[in-house]
UniProtKB/TrEMBL annotation:
InterPro entries for the chain: DSBA-like_thioredoxin_dom (IPR001853), GST_Kappa/NadH (IPR051924), HCCAis_GSTk (IPR014440), NahD-like (IPR044087), Thioredoxin-like_sf (IPR036249)
EC category name: isomerase
Active-site residue list: S13 (nucleophile)
Identification of the protein by name: 2-hydroxychromene-2-carboxylate isomerase
Family: Belongs to the GST superfamily. NadH family.
Signal peptide coordinates: none
Keyword annotations of the record: Isomerase, Transferase
SUPFAM superfamilies assigned: Thioredoxin-like
Cellular component aspect of the GO annotation: cytoplasm
Length: 198
């Protein structure tokens, strides 16, 4: 399997959640491998001068209406999280830690966090809520918390974020097929096309 999609993502982006629901299907259709690349969206914004669409009220309102349209098209649930925007530093360190140290549980881990954020509308910048979500999904909150303090985990997340900036990423979700960058879950048709012609 030589065809790959690199998926630079941050859990705190609802558009990234939608891409997450569709990319495995696209990769299955094209016999491609999906490579998850956790990054810190706040770091991307800081490095590139970009900001969340929510900072422009009219744009923010439109964005959620548009995402709702796509959710209906994809046939997946989506709920506006009242706690948005969410500080995802600890979450993304946890995601990176699971990928590094428990790859066999990585998919289930991000699935449960995406679901908690964008289907249940949970406040995942609240440690007690995070602990409850993890426990309900069969993860040990203390073990996950320990991963977020691991220096190798912190360094990997920082390196991923820096690499993303160097490769032209300015927001999430960002996907690479070879050297081609595709930004936004509304560009998945181009990702599919690139994989079919790769």
């Amino acid at each position: 399997m030589s065809k790959t999609v690199e998926f630079f993502f941050d859990l705190g982006s609802p558009a990234t959640y939608l891409a997450h629901t569709q990319l495995p299907k696209i990769c299955k259709q094209t016999d491609s491998q999906l490579i998850y690349r956790p990054m810190l969206l706040g770091g991307i914004f800081k490095a590139t001068g970009n900001v969340s669409p929510i900072t422009v009220p009219a744009k923010g309102r439109y964005m959620f209406q548009d995402l709702d349209r796509y959710a209906k098209r994809y046939g997946v649930p989506l709920k506006f999280n009242p706690n948005f925007p969410i500080n995802t530093l600890m979450l993304m360190r946890a995601v990176t830690g699971m990928q590094l140290h428990h790859p066999e549980r990585f998919q289930a881990f991000i699935d449960c966090l995406f679901h908690a954020l964008w289907v249940e509308g949970c406040s995942l910048d609240d440690p007690a809520t995070v602990a409850a979500v993890l426990t309900q999904n069969g993860f040990d909150p203390n073990e996950v918390l320990a991963l977020t303090a691991d220096e190798a985990v912190k360094a990997t997340l920082k390196e991923n974020t820096e690499e993303a900036v160097q490769r032209g990423v300015f927001g999430a979700p960002s996907m690479f097929v070879g050297d081609q960058l595709f930004f936004g879950q509304d560009r998945l048709d181009f990702v599919l096309e690139a994989l079919r012609t790769q």
